[in-house]
Amino acid sequence: MPEQVTMGKQLNWGVAGVGMIAHDFLTAMASLSPEQHKVTAVAGKDLDRVYRLATLHNISTAYEGYDAIAADNTIDIVFVSVLNLQHYEVTKLMLENGKHVLCEKPMGMTYKQTKSLVDLAREKKLFLLEGMWSRFFPAYDALDKHITSGGLGDIYHINVQFGVEINDIERNLMKDLGGGVVLDLGIYMLQLLQFIYKEPPTDIMCTGHLSKTGVDESMSCALKYKDGRTATIAAHTRAALANRAEINGTKGTIHLDYFWCPTVLHISAANSTEWTLPKGKYKFHFHNSAGLAYQIQECWDCINNGLLESPKMNLDESVLLSKLCDTMRTQLGVLDS
Hints:
alpha/beta, six-stranded parallel sheet
């Protein structure tokens, strides 16, 4: 069981997984206070890769496999950054061994898996957060304040597009690796709709294409909400799309570029705010990955304040998003109905 974290205590991190996101995570963490965050161990199935990552980021302990890091009593919290298909089993292992967990999205491959992890974390009274890093960008806070203050009036439609050419990445080609457009890209669009509308849709209609291996590689969905509100979302792994959200209200429209990791909020010609991300010691693999620091800091803030869930991305939302993803993947033919 992690030692009770008191106000101001350093959080000892472990990292499970040695892929590109783990590198970006560690590079982003280096921009935060070392008095609050320290990575003490990294674990993975390929020990050579574990050693390389540990050496690059000056991490003292390298583990082969995940059992050892789960049993390491010096670790307070584990960042789970393995393949999608392994999120459930590795997160479950960490929770069962008394670790707080920040898990890359999606936390589970299905609603059943996600609900099981949430129930386990609540039963054990451990902090658990799905790594929906979008929610912790300052632009999201500013957007929420603008909407709440009535700046957009009544919002009746949201349109979101997210397309990147990632169809050559192995995990997106193989169904047994947990790839697919819904869980990789679609979930980002769903969380934005949930962030703005604050309630689930009453109806979803989706269509799209599957690859030869049964992986969803494109999708287009229409969502219906109460009180005359609607949304349309489209995602693709074979083509680049606009990669922006358009939020339409009775008092105006906001275009949010790079909506999953925005650093600019343009409300009007006279009202635009830009946030500067910290520079990393090493090159990042993904766009605006320096912003991972926001969700890392959220973990410290929550745990130091005795919170087991983040108010910005609570576990009920993770459960809801997993249920919506199940619905979409069933309509696309990925899951059996």
